[in-house]
Amino acid sequence: MNSLFRLDGRIALxxxxxxxxxxxxxxxxxxxxxxxxxxxxxxxxxxxVAENIKMRGGRTGVFEMDVSIPESVDSSLxxxxxxxxxxxxxxxxxxxxxxxNALDVTEADWDAVxxxxxxxxxxxxxxxxxxxxxxxxxxxxxxxxxxxxxxxAKGVSPYAxxxxxxxxxxxxxxxxxxxxxxxxxxIAPGYFLTEMNNDFFTTKSESRDALIKNIPQRRIGKPxxxxxxxxxxxSDASSYMTGSTIVVDGGHxxxxx
Length: 257
Ligand SMILES: NC(=O)c1ccc[n+]([C@@H]2O[C@H](COP(=O)([O-])OP(=O)(O)OC[C@H]3O[C@@H](n4cnc5c(N)ncnc54)[C@H](OP(=O)(O)O)[C@@H]3O)[C@@H](O)[C@H]2O)c1
Prior knowledge:
Layout: E1 11-15, H1 20-31, E2 35-40, H2 43-55, E3 60-64, H3 70-83, E4 89-92, H4 107-117, H5 119-135, E5 139-144, H6 157-177, E6 182-189, H7 198-202, H8 206-214, H9 227-234, E7 245-248
Parallel strand pairs: 1-2, 1-4, 2-3, 4-5, 5-6, 6-7
This protein binds NADP nicotinamide-adenine-dinucleotide phosphate.
NADP nicotinamide-adenine-dinucleotide phosphate is lined by residues 15-16, 18-22, 40-42, 45, 65-68, 93-96, 116, 120, 144, 146, 189, 191-192, 194-197.
């Protein structure tokens, strides 16, 4: 791998590393030389991801964490700091989606989505940044947004709102933390097959076929098609980028709604 994208000596935390994109991101960062802390609620699933990373020669550790609970984030970050070192590369990936028509969304649905996707990302970012500032260290934060930050679909109103806010939060944090040498960027993926959307994409339906037909590249993405963007934003290759959100979506943003 080109040395421009290497991450040797970096201590990464990937939230939501127990499945899907997070498990993939953690593996890619470890392959590039970072020591990777895996954070999520499901301990057994994190252990599987850790096993895979170790088999590939990477260094990793498992840290149970609920991003919607600030005390859980604090105690995990303390544990990571004492076992691996201060996190200087955060991938704020933990996220949930609840499919529900806007009229039927309950307060509990709303809170679950916003407290994970937006408040959770803010909590982990702020707690990570406070530790970096105290240690006078530079760092990188990558927020995982979505094209639903920009365009809409039916049945995902809290999710779309959370991701739009996450893009704006990315810009705010970038603006305030540049003076601390902390860069904050985001990735806005289109559709990638994971547990979050497995039922929808693996069951034949008119809406599924219509959605795929509407993507200019006529298919959903594979997690490895996010690897290059992740490594760009994680490494010094993007040393003059902060506050940016990169869309990776097979052209979906250019399609009519
Ligand atoms: N797949 C797509 O097409 C797509 C497109 C755009 C954006 N995204 C974004 O990509 C990210 C990953 O999603 P995915 O598709 O990989 O879905 P996924 O397989 O369902 O993964 C979601 C991850 O988030 C973790 N998580 C959920 N709530 C959490 C909490 N309170 N605390 C800590 N971890 C939590 C889950 O782990 P535990 O349950 O073990 O805690 C899981 O590891 C999300 O932010 C999602 O919005 C995905």
